[in-house]
Amino acid sequence: MPAGVPYDDALKRYRPGVLPTLRRDDSSVDELLKGYHPDHGANAHVALSVGVNRAEPCQPDLARYLQANALVDDVDLAGAQLVTTDVLVIGGGGGGCAAALTAAKQGARVMLATKLRLGDSNTVMAEGGIQAAIGEDDSPQLHFEDTLRAGHFCGEPELVAQMVMDGPDVIRWLIQLGMMFDQEEAGPIGGNLLRKKPGGASAARILSYRDYTGLEMMRVLREAVDLDPGIEVWNRCPVVELLSDEWGHCAGAVIYNLEWRTFVLVRARAVILATGGAGRLHLNSFPTSNHYGATADGLVLAYRIGARLRELDSFQYHPTGIAYPPHLAGGLISEAARSAGAKLINGEGERFVDELKPRDVVASAILRECAQGRGIERDGQIGVFLDTPTLELENPGILAKRLVTLTHLAHKCGHDAAQEPFLVYPTLHYQNGGVAIDKHGATSVPGLYCVGEVTGGIHGRNRLMGNALLDILSMGRRAGTHAAELEGRVTASRAGIGHVHAWQRELTLAGLPLDVKAPQLFPTYAHFDLRVDAGVRSSERERVVGGIR
């Protein structure tokens, strides 16, 4: 990549309050994406060698991970404790909580196992808001069309239609749980919900709370789960393998307790994977906006047991990740800033893209500017300016009132967002593809459901801002309800890891190594060591079975 314009030189050209004209660009969207988006290029994907998606394209780093050996074998599980439940939810973010709450409401006994703590997830880190067509100038039909168009018409129309139709009811449900939203005006009984227009949308339908919507959403969901007597939460208990029965159906999972370093076998008549995305694999060597536990665990486990996946070569790079300072690289500056009017400016002082185009277009335009020497370089980091000072000049107080997270982040790194623009560069943000599901969240493996970012089919090959939060709640509630209604229970003697043995044979026949193992659970720089503590006393092992609240 050519060197960019030195930061000090770019800052001299920058004029807060003076909006540059948008540079004319005669290239098509297809040319821009194929030329600069990381999903494209000669080495952008490889063909899978094993599994139900054999011969289909996959991002190279992810392919190695999907085609890895299991972390556990029969010896590891020989002395494991056994626990039974009706519905096992894996993941403690918004999708997992929504699924657990609705399953419990149907009368099912629910266990929710989460790798970190309940709520530690990408949901908490979602800043911009949630989409729902509630305005008089909007409709689910427009939302449907916008979503399909942004995803390059690769989304499943039935799944998209279901999600957008659920939108208004999801918002009502959140308000009933106690979630707060920004309002247009105050009054004796409150005002109208403030709606903002996101990139790629035809109407203003983003509902938010400041720029930490996901945190506020997770607050009420976590409280609801904690107060529900039908849900047992197991914190710091990642799932390392699924269990299968003699018919190949999903029959539970293997949990590894991080505190006691022991395995627990959980038998369930239904398993719901809500494990999130793959950002912490740092695909294509990009920084990421994802939380610490986003290591594609659900993709690996679902694929190994035989679930079909889709769009494994498609990922979203959010346009405005922090480029400087380096220790915050990849951290997100919400699209809410651009929705409010913040512009992108290159090293030559030009606007070079419509900031409210879909995310893949805006990210590709930034990558093009940097590749062609019009980026801005500072201490080895490159990017473009996000013009927050002009936004503040035109809307006094907006940074402190509507972009609280941005203002706080700027303060922490000694940056005054009202006086100096941010240096931004695309960050790995979202996994567009994933496990193929039906309208209930059910996969091709009976007994296994998936919700949220671990799935594919709703967002196509690019996601609109705000649709992720709607997706996890819409599908989470549906999957929880359907899973709780499954008939039949499976006894302990019928569950095991027979599918792992079949997988190992397939890897050997394909000439793939057995020493590469997954799921990874944590980023490689975490230096995490999976081992079993054989010295745990029996009384302590009973505490493992009871879970840790």
Automatic annotation (TrEMBL):
Protein name: Fumarate reductase/succinate dehydrogenase flavoprotein domain protein
Keyword tags: Flavoprotein, Oxidoreductase
PANTHER family with a match to the protein in the record: SUCCINATE DEHYDROGENASE 2 FLAVOPROTEIN SUBUNIT, SUCCINATE DEHYDROGENASE [UBIQUINONE] FLAVOPROTEIN SUBUNIT, MITOCHONDRIAL
Protein origin, superkingdom: Bacteria
GO MF entry, a single one: oxidoreductase activity
Domain FAD-dependent oxidoreductase 2 FAD-binding: 86-469
Entry annotated with the keyword Flavoprotein: yes
Xref: InterPro entries: FAD-dep_OxRdtase_2_FAD-bd (IPR003953), FAD/NAD-bd_sf (IPR036188), SdhA/FrdA/AprA (IPR030664), Succ_DH/fumarate_Rdtase_cat_sf (IPR027477)
GO biological process: NAD+ biosynthetic process
Record: active site: 359
Cofactor(s) of this protein: FAD
